[in-house]
Amino acid sequence: MRMNRITFSQLWRVGVASSLGLLAVSAAVPVLSGPPAKNPNADNNAFYETKVRPILTARCLTCHTGAGGSGGLDLTDRAAILKGGESGAAVNLSKNADSLILRFINYHESRKMPPQGKIPQPEIDVLTKWVAMGLPMTAKKVSSAGSATGSFHGPPKVNAETKNFWAFRPVKRPAVPAVKNMAWVRNPMDAFVLAKLEKNNLMPAPPLGKAAWLRRVTYDLIGLPPTPEETKAFLVDTAPNAYEKVVDRLLASPHYGEKWGRHWLDLVRYAETNSFERDGAKPFAYRYRDYVIKSLNDDKPYDVFIKEQLAGDELDKVTPETLTATGYYRLGQWDDEPADPEQARYDELDDIVATTGQTMLGLTVNCARCHDHKLDPIPQKDYYRMLAFFQNVRRYQQGGWERNDVTALRVIATEEERKSFSGAEVAWKAKLDPFNKAITTVEKKVSATFVPVEVEEFRDEAKRPEIIKKRIPTLITEAEYTEYLKNVEARNALRDNPPPGLTRALGVVEGDISAPATHVLLRGNPHVPGQEVTPGFLSVLSPPDPEISPNADGSSSGRRRALAEWIASPKNPLTARVMANRLFQHHFGRGIVRSTSNFGRLGDTPTHPELLDFLATELVKNNWRLKPMHRMMTLSTAYRMSSQGNKTALAKDPENNLLWRVDMRRLTAEEVRDSILAVNGTLNRTLYGPSVYPRIPKEVLAGQSVPGSGWDVNSGPEQQTRRSIYTHIKRSLALPILASFDAADTDFTCPVRFATTQPTQALSMLNSPFLGQQAADFAALLQKQAGDDPKAQVLLGLWRALQRPPTEKEIARGMAFFRDMTQESNISQKEALRRYCLVLLNLNEFMYLD
Amino acid sequence: MMDKEFCGRTRRQFLWEMGAGFVGTAMAGMFEDSFFAKQSLAADGVTPYAPPKLGKGGKAPMIPAKAKSVIFLYMYGGPSQIDTFDYKPGMKGMDGKTINVKTFGRGGHKNQGRIVEPKFEFKQYGQCGKWVSSLFPNLATCVDDIAFLHSMTADSPIHGSAMLQMNSGKILSGSPCIGSWVNYGLGSVNENLPGFVVMLDPRGGPISGPKNWSSGYMPATYQATVVSATDTPILDLRRPDELRDVDQRKILDTLKAYNSEHERPRSDNSNLAARIESYELAYRMQAAAPEATDLHSEPEHIRELYGLNDKRTEVFGRQCLMARRMVERGVRFIQIYSGGAHVDSTWDAHNDLVENHSLHAGETDKPIAGLIKDLKQRGLLDETLIVWGGEFGRQPTAEYAVGTGRDHNAYGFTMWMAGGGVKGGVSVGQTDELGSKAVEDPLKVKHLHATILHQMGLDQNRLTYFYGGLNQKLVGVEGAEPIKQII
Question: Are residues B78 and B391 in contact, defined by beta-carbon separation less than 8 angstroms?
Answer without folding.
Answer: yes
